[in-house]
């Protein structure tokens, strides 16, 4: 089978990307399959512009920069990367290899599988308003990818949670005007000092208020009309109304699970021979859900997969000895 890979990694988060690098470094034909249109998993999704201080070798690094670095490291070994496919089934074939099927019906074949898919997939809860479709992705956004894209813009944040408060505060000195629309009277899961900061800031808070209507032309959203009759002239709208999390059905893939995660042995092996797990997807005593833990587990999982494919292979290697960047 020409499309038979040595290692197929489910998930292109930080763990999956580092797994891809290490797998390539160990000379394995490697594929990564990611559901989202972008790589980086939770780091890209939840905190792309926040500083991370607890990854070895980086005294401080933004989420985006970390993902760019680990992505560059992964690409250096030339893995196949498949985007916007969600694996829904894994079947062990008679020869011991695996057939992975995505929700699009695509089939992927592999001698081993490394599950680096966290707890599953997540999507933002969409805004529930008529006519929003024509502005989504243009002026209606569900994540802040880059703060500077809001420079000088009139921005409305629709949210009743900590995420919306964080966004409004982050944009206060960048956007020309920031409004936050909360349908309730309080903000949920938020630190008191952040609410105090918000109240002292120039952000205009609209409590117990809903968006009634979006008005504009076919191509341009111009106003957000509130249910109290107020019309806000705007450039951009940011929406956080919660997440839709679709948990991975690991048990349907024949895997033992514990609280939605996959128990693993010391080489990240699962109960199914040839399937390994790393990162937030894996669980073992004293497991920590950290980026650095995923990196270490990625190496163990790849070394496990290498030994599974070739029992005579070395249990580990040094990059300084076997691998040279061109
Ligand atoms: C708000 C927040 C702050 C954090 N701060 C820190 C910090 O400061 N330091 C730190 O070390 N850690 C931090 N963490 C934890 C850290 O983000 C996670 O441990 C890390 O992102 C896990 O990476 P992962 O690649 O294992 O999983 P994920 O990042 O969850 O990536 C899994 C990927 O798999 C994809 N996927 C899932 N199912 C499928 C499927 N069936 N088919 C295809 N693709 C699939 C998903 O789309 C996703 O991209 C934080 C977490 C959060 C939420």
UniProtKB/TrEMBL annotation:
Cofactor binding, per record: Binds 1 FAD per subunit.
Binding site for FAD: 15, 34, 42, 47, 87, 122, 280, 320
Ranges of residues in domain FAD/NAD(P)-binding: 5-302
Catalytic reactions on record: 2 reduced [2Fe-2S]-[ferredoxin] + NADP(+) + H(+) = 2 oxidized [2Fe-2S]-[ferredoxin] + NADPH
Signal peptide span: none
E.C. numbers: 1.18.1.2
Xref: SUPFAM superfamilies: FAD/NAD(P)-binding domain
Keywords for this protein: FAD, Flavoprotein, NADP, Oxidoreductase
HAMAP family: FENR2
Family stated for the protein in its record: Belongs to the ferredoxin--NADP reductase type 2 family.
Protein known as: Ferredoxin--NADP reductase
């Amino acid at each position: 089978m020409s499309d038979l890979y040595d290692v197929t990694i489910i998930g292109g988060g930080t763990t999956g990307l580092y797994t891809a690098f290490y797998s390539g470094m160990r000379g394995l034909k490697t594929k990564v399959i990611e559901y989202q249109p972008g790589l980086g998993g939770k780091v890209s999704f939840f905190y792309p512009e926040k500083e991370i201080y607890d990854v070895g070798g980086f005294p401080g690094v933004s989420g985006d920069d970390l993902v760019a670095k680990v992505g560059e490291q992964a690409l250096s070994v030339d893995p196949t990367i498949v985007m916007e496919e969600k694996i829904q089934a894994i079947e062990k074939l008679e020869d011991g290899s695996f057939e992975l099927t995505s929700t699009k019906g695509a089939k992927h074949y592999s001698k081993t599988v490394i599950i680096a898919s966290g707890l599953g997939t997540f999507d933002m809860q969409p805004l529930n308003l008529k006519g929003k479709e024509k502005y989504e992705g243009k002026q209606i956004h569900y994540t802040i990818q880059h703060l500077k894209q809001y420079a000088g813009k009139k921005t409305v944040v629709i949210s009743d949670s900590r995420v919306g408060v964080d966004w409004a505060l982050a944009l206060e000195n960048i956007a020309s005007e920031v409004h936050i629309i909360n349908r309730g009277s309080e903000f949920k899961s938020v630190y008191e000092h952040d609410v105090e900061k918000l109240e002292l800031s120039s952000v205009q808070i609209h409590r117990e208020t809903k968006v009634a209507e979006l008005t504009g032309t076919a191509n341009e959203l111009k106003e957000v009309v509130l249910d109290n009759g107020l019309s806000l002239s705007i450039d951009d709208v940011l929406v956080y109304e919660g997440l839709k999390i679709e948990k991975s059905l690991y048990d349907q893939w024949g895997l033992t699970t514990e609280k939605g995660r996959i128990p693993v042995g010391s080489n990240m092996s699962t109960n199914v021979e040839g399937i390994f797990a790393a990162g937030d997807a894996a669980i073992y005593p004293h497991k920590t859900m950290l980026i650095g833990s995923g990196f270490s587990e990625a190496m163990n999982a790849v070394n496990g997969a290498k030994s599974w494919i070739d029992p005579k292979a070395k249990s580990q290697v040094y990059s300084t000895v076997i691998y040279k960047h061109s």
